């Protein structure tokens, strides 16, 4: 590949990426939705990180922003351990997060391009594959849903495959194993959930390449060469171990945190709950514009036609057999209960925590791109074959049959209901146009130098339209206005307190912007002991796993918990001084104090201070005295209190929290099964609670050592080659 071709490829990927530049300072939301993980999780986490760095000059390992506190360093959504996400810290609003996503989309498209080139495709074919991967509707649907870390991780997948292919089945020694381990570890740092999928694909591809190339010398003089197999197994193990070591800063704290969370209670049925419904398979032909991200499967009309055209070519079944198997297996896994083996897979370590098998569609769409590229390459090779006339007819007939099915479905629905949905009309029109272009290309009516740019143009037009129409872009001002009136009122109240909302009236990003701490929250990982406490405190029972506290079961967040009666006393122990709701609440000790539209604010007269002194004992009983001299930072709490008694902090107890009294380490206690406490004798004492989790430092040390070892390996390896 020439330098000019590389420049052209980079320019094309930059131009297609330019479709997102007008929205770089806006938040991406799914069409007609008021919720996106970008404002639910990623942006609040970014704001908390920025505020900690600016105000306290320290990296937060513990967050008190939601759920009355949780280990920030153990949460994969914190972004602490994935270096590219730190780019977003420099910018204000959505710009940084969007820039990170765009850089990864560019990286992914070029990675797909060079991988396809390594697979033997021509420059032009690989270019089309790179564009299709960057603009994949499923990728952009997850981007709109706010799944930023998932998008980043997916974009590294072609690089993982390229590293393996570049070695021609692993015959270049341990260099490939080290590189594979680094890339796989980087994927895991971006999103551990995707690492399971990417790791499975990498292992299968590695085994396939080894079976084709690495075992050519498996038998020599009639004797098996076990050394060849042993070396391959050793390289695979080395890559996996290195990936685990790279991921250790995230993985080690998570291994301690995860078993204590509600995530550990997931059943196989829970894991398959978001599998792809069979009726959604029609969206392969007709895009689900603005639909639920997990169920978006549309690969693009052109890629679909090229894919079908490729399937009728017998040579492809042998040449691309691996990708045909990948397409079939990942597709079956995505549809969950229909595939009987999914129940077994759902119990495997790692996969048992994935919960969304439909994300395997990323892999099936990747396989579609590879096979479609082979279909296009086959068309370009037709003039060189002796059976070109028959092959042309077969390809055209196969593609026309698919288009005819789509048109008949649209027409039939039109006749039955009297109107045709936009998605069906759009899908039919684009399929017909792509089919016409396909036929002209097959018949040689369009010259090669004109046909390739036209193919890229129609691909960009199709996928760009789907992605744009399925995404709503919110300005920073619009996003900030969610719950703004209540946030302004609460931010003006004096003292340290938490807020609880049974109707998500105070969104997490708005609370973060105004420095408000929440007892409720949305996060896939929640301490089980806290979730159980909150069920009793909020009056909202949870029949199964929920990513929210409180749970919302009916789909109407502002009304689902209308009948629940919260316990002012239990919320009060969490330092919840205010309750914000979209409906009236009749509960003792909850006094209405303000209203903004439908949003009511209640003051909890039973609220306890953030820290108090009580009589010794692990149960709150009797009179308490508030601790007024208090400074709360992300990883520590400083206080001065008069003893004797038990000093209790209304903070969630978790392994890693320690305490000193007058500079001397003391035993930290768990009070009421949830809170932190320490006994002090008579007199005035300096109390210092601090978060010093050994798992974080152990994980960071392992990760740092892994990078150093990998760096030294390549340094001495290259030095040896130059000597």
Task: Give the SSE layout.
Elements: H1 3-17, E1 27-30, H2 37-56, H3 95-118, H4 123-134, H5 137-144, H6 148-155, H7 157-166, H8 174-190, H9 192-214, E2 219-220, E3 223-224, H10 226-257, H11 268-271, H12 301-311, H13 314-319, H14 321-334, H15 342-345, H16 361-381, H17 388-417, H18 422-442, H19 448-469, E4 471-474, H20 476-480, H21 484-491, E5 498-500, H22 508-513, E6 517-518, E7 521-522, H23 528-538, E8 548-549, H24 568-573, E9 576-581, E10 590-596, E11 599-604, E12 611-614, E13 625-626, E14 629-633, E15 636-652, E16 657-661, E17 664-666, E18 669-671, E19 675-691, H25 694-722
Parallel strand pairs: 5-6, 5-9
Antiparallel strand pairs: 1-4, 2-3, 7-8, 9-11, 10-11, 12-13, 12-15, 14-15, 15-19, 16-17, 16-19, 18-19
Helix pairs in contact: 1-3, 1-4, 3-4, 3-6, 3-7, 4-16, 4-19, 5-6, 6-8, 7-8, 7-9, 8-9, 8-10, 9-10, 10-25, 12-16, 12-17, 12-18, 14-16, 17-18, 18-19
